[in-house]
Amino acid sequence: MKILAIESSCDETACAVVKDGRNIVSSIVATQIDEHKLYGGVVPEIASRRHCENIAGVCDEALLQAGLRLSDCDAVAVTYAPGLIGALLVGVNFAKSLALAINKPLIPVHHIKGHIAANYIAHSELEPPYLCLVASGGHSHIIKVNDYTKFETIGKTLDDAAGEAFDKAARSMGFPYPGGIHVDKAAKLGDSKRYKLPIPKTENPYDFSFSGLKTAVINLVHNAEQKGEDINVNDLAASFQHTACDILTSKFIRAALDNGYKTITLAGGVAANSGLRETLTKQADLHGMKLYIPPISLCGDNAAMIGSQGYYEYLAGNIADSSLNAVASLKL
Ligand code: KG4
Ligand code: ZN
């Protein structure tokens, strides 16, 4: 079954063709980062307008690369929640029109479920049940994946998401948006023991809190500026990354041990972080757990992951009609 998938929840306009949920036939991602960078973050109005301008061309390109016509596709899947509402609406309406034009099913996909499904594309043997850590710009969740379409969140962030903390800490260090990747690069050159940063306590041991860590970095930079002292950015990046990865890894491994999981997966934009990949791999090995991580190309937002999850939603009978609406915030 060939699914044409569309993703437009934030600042990437993406379209892919995915076969049987596991194989990418084609995948196009048009990023708007260069434009949003000028404002230090995503400007929702601009994002919606760029999606509107680019979505038809991106879908044409995905079909061209797949060597298919639209009518060769068996269904259309689309991210309908959560995300920037104006951005989502562009993708949802475009997907509706395509499905209507070829008279094929329209499959609504939850963005976070899409991130989780990225690992099905990369690892053909992976099957539920397993425990997943999703760390992205908008979410930090520990999720029991009981089946392809059955999820249970056992931990989440109480304030900032991991990626948000990376981006805000990065900004105070002078890096452009999105700063996560710049922190990652600088951290490789720095000493992670140089700056002592706080590790927050949460009532539920699987919940996260990143705002204290983020604020500690911002305060450290401001205080140094006021005193006319120099900050070693590489050391600060390394110290921040080490602390953030330690928090994510220790809580996730704790959750896996407590709940008896031997199979664990990592997903979301922050899964691209080299420190997190390394720390988690070491901890998983130490505890005899099988860890699956997507390749970097499938960590950030893309439509292939939506096509993968769309396949399993289709098999579970989750089909939308032409009244499908976009939803800005929606639990799993
Ligand atoms: O999943 P994603 O592409 O979009 C959302 O659904 O939010 O995640 C984007 C987030 C941004 O905060 C970005 O800075 C972060 O992922 N990110 C990274 C790295 N690459 C992307 N954070 C840390 N290290 C990286 N290498
Ligand atoms: Zn995402």
Description:
This protein is of the alpha/beta class. It is built from ten helices and ten strands. It has helices at 33-37, 44-66, 85-102, 111-122, 162-172, 180-187, 211-227, 233-258, 274-286, 304-315, and strands spanning 2-7, 12-19, 23-31, 75-81, 106-110, 130-135, 140-147, 150-156, 263-267, 290-292. The strands form two sheets. The protein has a five-stranded mixed sheet with strand order 3-2-1-4-5, with helices on both faces. Strand 6 and strand 7 form a beta hairpin. The radius of gyration is 20 Å and the shape is globular. The chain starts with a strand and ends in a 17-residue tail after the last helix. The model has no long low-confidence stretch (mean pLDDT 98). The structure holds 5'-O-[(R)-(carboxyoxy)(hydroxy)phosphoryl]adenosine and zinc ion. 5'-O-[(R)-(carboxyoxy)(hydroxy)phosphoryl]adenosine (KG4) is lined by residues 10, 136-138, 163, 166-167, 178-181, 184, 268-270, 272-273, 300-301.
